[in-house]
Structure formats: structure tokens, C-alpha cells
């Protein structure tokens, strides 16, 4: 009986041993690269378990300003690997190079299990001197700075999205050049140019470690990069980092916390700078401040009267015609401001509502589509950002988040008197983006030629050679030179004697433009305040729009910021 039990136990042990051997064969030889239903690569997982790494560059393409300067700032930084605390290394010499005490450098290793950046910015000279020492585990590198980046809303943001990236780039997914950790553009230029900026592998410092965290088998830290001299590509924008910084400072110093500014070069119609507030939070890319408000539609208020004035001039309404500006906007009673009888030009300068509601009614009676047609000739009939065929993209947009302008939400509103009147002063359903209004001012300042706004001029290979350039897109229909000249004079009069006089008439450069205040309802304690224009008046160079979306009574922050930006640009040009 005992003998039989011993034989049974022995057989069980032998079977168990064969099972273990079979399992080892399965793990070590058969399913090493595709284990279980999850298809785990055991070799890769084993290596990763004993690997410490520091990502220098995620491998995504770079976005540059118009001078070729990266929009994402980077600073020289000291990267240290934790295995250094277990070995002898020239700690004192490194401390002397970066001007810190050896004790502070030694304390930085406390609690560190992965490679880390030493908490002190170093200089280019110090960076060079450290790397000349060739100390394993000590590296001076350029580290991207993500805090308060310039033009954050224009540049946009990225994040991983495994399901979307697999469906969007199936070929790259199947060949293994991207994976679930690869980041996709979700807004701004990162979204628009994602196919060109997509990473195909990061640049990493890494080493394989033993259980104590020391380099395995004496292997040194390796520099690993899958990039070549051509890829990833670089997107060269039309933005100017120096001017962009001044724009952001002007908006913030004027305490505009909900609004922003748009600056366009009139000759090229390129976007030079754009600021949107609230501030973008990279830690919460879909939360407050995520939206670029400068490309979204809002009530333009009296800035919209520029389109009505252009339509009036094109239909031969004379500057000398008089209007009763004591009346309210519906012309059925006395208004809040008693301005008396004003000419068309003076009505525009003083932003008389009655004049423009009367004109809109007359113009629409003759041609129901007169507002849309005039807007088209001013370059704001539809979206204004650069859009055209690019490779297999039929309608490639440089501003993927841009709103479509709205003039009338319903055609029947063109037969309702009060609806026409509200539309004439930029209220009711009218929605235009600050970018669109900036494009309108650029069109007028340029002499009437309407163009699309570009924010990207070229896509470059990694070595700086050109991959492709974006052509200029001009519109076929434009207003006559006579109408444009009349508009220019009227916009100048706003600053000389009208609503822009107090803040903008004593600037070192002559400005032309239009103010606007859009009301949001009786229960809202604030409104939208705009000023949009161009300068210098005699030789137009820039179109500028500033808007404060939370303007309260007796606040004039949009004017103040506009004036500051004009002065800054004047100083910059000298």
C-alpha cells in the first residue's frame, strides 16, 4: 500500500515537473512575443522591467516661428541617473561647474528611483563643459519648458488616444511606428498638422539595471533615437515670438482675463500674433481656457457697422446725407444719446445706431442678400483661415477650430424690421470671430484685396530644407477702390473725432478703426467691448483686433491694450 502511494506521489511529481518544463518552454521559446490573449511581448516586458529611461524628446515634429525659432522654449538642464548614488563619480567637479555645493547635489538623489532633472537651470557653457567630462549617468541636455508657452491656443495641445490613433493611422499602427502612447494633436496647429508632426519614435537616455539599480553587466547609459535627418517634419508658422510676447503682456497688463487680441500683417495677410484668455492649462487641455476664443464667433456689436457702411457706399449713399441720431435704434422714440442730425461719416464716427438700422432696412429691401455679399467682398463671408486642397486632403484648414460667420440665422428675419435693425448693429444672431474681423480690417487697409489668413508658411524637413510651401489665396470679388477709400476715411474719423478719440488719437502712429460694444442681455452685468483697426493709417502695415468679453461699465481695457500694442510695435520698428 505504502509502495503504491510512493509510486503515485512520484508520478505526480514527474508530471508536475513536465508541466513546469512545458510552461517554461512556452514562456521562453514559443510565446515570447505574443503571450496570452493580451499578446504581451515577454522579452520587451522583461527588458522594460529592468530599464530606467529619461525621454529627452517625444519625437513629435517642431513648430517654429517665422524666424525659425522653436515656439516651445527649451532650457539647458542637468539630468542625473539614480545609480550614481551607489558608485564613485566626480560629484565635486560637477558641483563646481554648475556653482552649487556638493552637499546640495548629493541631496538631490534622495528618494529618486528614476532619472531626474536637477533643480537648477544651467548655462550653455556649463552644459558644454559637463558633456565634455563624459561621465556615465550625468548628462546636460535641452529640456522643453511647458510652463506658460507662447501662443498656447494657436499651437494647441496633444494627448494619447489609443483608439483614435489606430483608426486614424492604420498603416503606421500595423507597422509598429506608432503605439498607444503616441500623442495626437487635439487642438490648434497640433490638430491641423498632426499628420505631418506625428512622432515615429522618441529620443531617450536609457540603461538596463540589475536588482540594485546599477547598470547591468557594466553597460553604460545609451542615447536612443529613431529620428533621421528628414523626419519628423517641422511646421514653420508666420508668428513672431518677440511680438507674440508683447501681445500677451499687453493683454495681461490691461487685466483682460476673458478676451484677447489678433495681429495680422496687412501685406502678406499672415497672422503675426494671437492671444486668447483665459490662460490655457496644459494639465487640463479640455477644461477652462482650452478654447481659442479668437477663432470662435461672438456678437461683434458696432464693429459690424463697417459692413453696413461698405454696402451703403457701394449703393451710392453719400457721406453728406443726414440722419436723425437723437432717435433710438428702432427709430420709434428718443435714444439714450442725443447726437442731433449727423452725416453718414459722422454717424459712423459716433456709432449712431439709428443711421445704420435705417440704412440696413433700405439696403435689404433692394437686395435681401446685400449684407452677405458685402461681407464676402470684405473677406468675411465665410471662414477666413487658409483653406485649400493639400495632397489627399480636399479642404485642409490651417485653423481647424474656426467658426463659420453667421449673419442671419433664418431667412425670414430679413422680412422682420426689428430683426434687421438688431442685425445692423451686430446683435441678435450675428456672430463673427476676432480673426474674421481682423481679416476685414486687413482687407480695407490693403486697398480692398481680400485674402485668406495664413498662420503657417512652410513645412520643413528636419534638416531645414523645404518640404512644401503654402501659397497665397486671394478672393475674386472685391469692393471698388472708391468704396475702400471712403471706408478708410471713415475708420480714421472714428479715432480723430469719434468713439476712439480719447484713447487712440495721441498715439505715435495714426490709427484707423472701429469700436464696438455688444450687449448680452439685461440680466448680464457685463458686455463685449471691441476695438478693431489698422495702422499706420497712411501706410498700413498691421491690422489689430482687441476684445474684452467681460467688460463692465466704465472699463476700457480693450482700448488700453490696443494702444499699448501700437506703442510696442512702434518701438519695435524703430
Task: Give a topology summary.
Elements: H1 2-30, H2 42-49, E1 51-57, E2 62-64, E3 74-80, H3 91-97, H4 102-107, E4 116-117, H5 124-133, E5 138-144, H6 152-155, E6 158-160, H7 162-168, H8 170-175, E7 183-185, H9 188-192, H10 194-197, E8 203-208, E9 222-225, E10 234-237, H11 241-253, E11 259-265, E12 270-277, H12 305-314, E13 322-324, E14 341-343, H13 344-350, H14 353-366, H15 370-377, E15 387-390, E16 393-397, H16 417-424, H17 434-446, E17 456-460, E18 466-469, H18 481-496, H19 501-504, E19 512-518, E20 527-535, E21 542-551, H20 557-573
Helix pairs in contact: 11-20, 12-14, 12-15, 12-18, 13-18, 14-16
Task: Describe the protein.
It contains 20 helices and 21 strands. Strands 12-11-21-20-19 form a five-stranded antiparallel sheet, sandwiched between helices. Helix content is 34%, strand content 19%. The protein is elongated and about 120 Å long. The protein is an alpha+beta fold and 574 residues long. Helix 12 (305-314) crosses helix 15 (370-377) and helix 13 crosses helix 18 (481-496).
Helicity range: 25-40%
Query: How would you characterize the largest beta sheet?
Result: 5 strands, antiparallel
Q: Mean pLDDT, rounded to whole units? A: 87
- Total helical elements: 20
Radius of gyration: 32 Å
For the largest beta sheet, what order do the strands appear in spatially? 12-11-21-20-19
Strand content: 15-25%
Number of strands: 21
Tell me the span between the first and last alpha carbons: 108 Å
Task: Based on Cα principal axes, name the global outline.
Answer: elongated
Task: Decide which structural class fits the backbone.
Answer: alpha+beta
Question: Which stretches are poorly predicted, pLDDT < 50 over at least 5 residues?
Answer: 40-50
Amino acid at each position: 500500500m505504502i509502495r503504491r502511494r510512493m509510486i503515485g506521489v512520484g508520478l505526480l511529481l514527474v508530471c508536475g515537473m513536465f508541466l513546469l518544463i512545458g510552461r517554461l518552454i512556452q514562456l521562453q521559446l514559443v510565446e515570447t512575443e505574443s503571450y496570452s490573449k493580451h499578446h504581451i511581448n515577454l522579452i520587451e516586458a522583461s527588458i522594460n522591467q529592468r530599464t530606467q529611461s529619461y525621454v529627452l524628446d517625444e519625437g513629435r515634429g517642431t513648430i517654429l516661428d517665422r524666424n525659425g525659432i522653436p515656439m516651445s522654449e527649451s532650457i539647458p538642464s542637468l539630468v542625473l541617473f539614480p545609480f550614481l548614488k551607489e558608485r564613485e563619480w566626480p560629484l565635486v567637479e560637477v558641483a563646481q561647474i554648475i556653482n552649487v555645493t556638493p552637499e546640495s547635489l548629493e541631496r538631490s538623489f534622495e528618494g529618486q528611483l528614476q532619472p531626474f532633472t536637477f533643480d537648477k537651470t544651467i548655462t550653455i557653457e556649463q552644459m558644454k563643459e559637463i558633456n565634455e567630462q563624459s561621465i556615465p549617468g550625468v548628462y546636460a541636455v535641452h529640456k522643453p519648458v511647458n510652463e506658460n508657452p507662447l501662443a498656447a491656443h494657436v499651437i494647441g495641445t496633444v494627448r494619447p488616444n489609443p483608439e483614435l490613433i489606430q483608426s486614424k493611422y492604420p498603416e503606421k499602427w500595423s507597422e509598429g511606428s506608432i503605439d498607444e502612447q503616441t500623442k495626437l494633436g487635439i487642438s490648434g496647429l497640433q490638430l491641423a498638422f498632426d499628420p505631418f508632426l506625428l512622432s515615429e519614435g522618441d529620443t531617450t537616455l536609457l540603461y538596463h539595471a540589475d536588482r540594485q539599480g546599477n547598470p547591468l553587466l557594466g553597460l553604460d547609459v545609451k542615447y536612443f533615437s529613431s529620428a533621421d535627418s528628414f523626419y519628423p517634419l517641422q511646421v514653420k508658422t508666420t508668428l513672431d515670438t518677440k511680438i507674440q510676447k508683447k501681445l500677451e503682456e499687453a493683454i495681461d497688463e490691461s487685466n483682460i482675463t476673458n478676451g484677447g487680441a489678433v495681429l495680422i500683417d496687412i501685406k502678406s495677410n499672415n497672422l503675426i500674433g494671437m492671444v486668447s484668455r483665459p490662460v490655457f492649462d496644459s494639465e487640463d487641455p479640455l477644461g477652462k481656457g482650452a478654447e481659442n476664443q479668437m477663432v470662435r464667433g461672438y456678437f461683434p456689436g458696432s464693429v459690424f457697422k463697417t459692413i453696413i457702411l461698405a454696402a451703403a457706399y457701394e449703393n451710392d449713399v453719400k457721406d453728406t446725407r443726414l440722419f436723425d441720431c437723437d432717435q433710438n435704434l428702432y427709430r420709434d422714440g428718443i435714444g439714450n444719446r442725443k447726437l442731433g442730425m449727423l452725416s453718414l461719416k459722422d454717424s459712423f464716427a459716433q456709432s449712431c445706431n439709428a443711421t445704420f438700422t435705417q440704412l440696413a432696412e433700405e439696403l435689404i429691401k433692394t437686395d435681401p442678400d446685400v449684407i452677405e455679399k458685402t461681407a464676402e467682398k470684405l473677406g468675411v463671408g465665410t471662414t477666413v483661415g487658409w483653406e485649400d486642397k493639400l495632397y489627399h486632403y480636399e479642404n485642409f484648414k490651417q485653423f481647424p477650430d474656426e467658426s463659420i460667420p453667421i449673419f442671419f440665422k433664418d431667412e425670414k428675419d430679413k422680412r422682420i424690421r426689428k430683426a434687421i435693425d438688431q442685425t445692423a448693429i451686430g446683435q441678435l444672431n450675428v456672430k463673427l470671430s476676432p480673426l474674421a474681423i481682423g481679416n476685414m480690417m486687413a482687407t480695407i487697409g490693403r486697398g480692398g484685396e481680400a485674402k485668406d489668413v495664413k498662420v503657417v508658411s512652410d513645412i520643413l524637413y528636419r534638416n531645414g530644407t523645404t518640404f512644401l510651401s503654402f501659397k497665397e489665396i486671394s478672393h475674386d470679388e472685391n469692393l471698388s477702390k472708391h468704396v475702400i477709400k471712403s471706408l478708410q476715411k471713415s475708420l480714421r474719423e472714428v479715432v480723430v473725432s469719434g468713439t476712439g478719440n480719447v484713447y487712440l488719437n495721441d498715439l505715435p502712429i495714426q490709427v484707423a478703426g472701429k469700436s464696438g460694444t455688444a450687449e448680452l442681455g439685461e440680466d448680464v452685468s457685463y458686455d463685449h467691448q471691441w476695438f478693431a483697426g489698422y495702422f499706420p493709417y497712411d501706410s498700413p502695415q498691421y491690422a489689430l483686433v482687441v476684445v474684452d468679453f467681460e467688460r463692465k461699465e466704465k472699463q476700457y481695457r480693450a482700448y488700453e491694450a490696443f494702444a499699448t500694442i501700437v506703442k510696442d510695435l512702434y518701438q519695435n520698428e524703430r
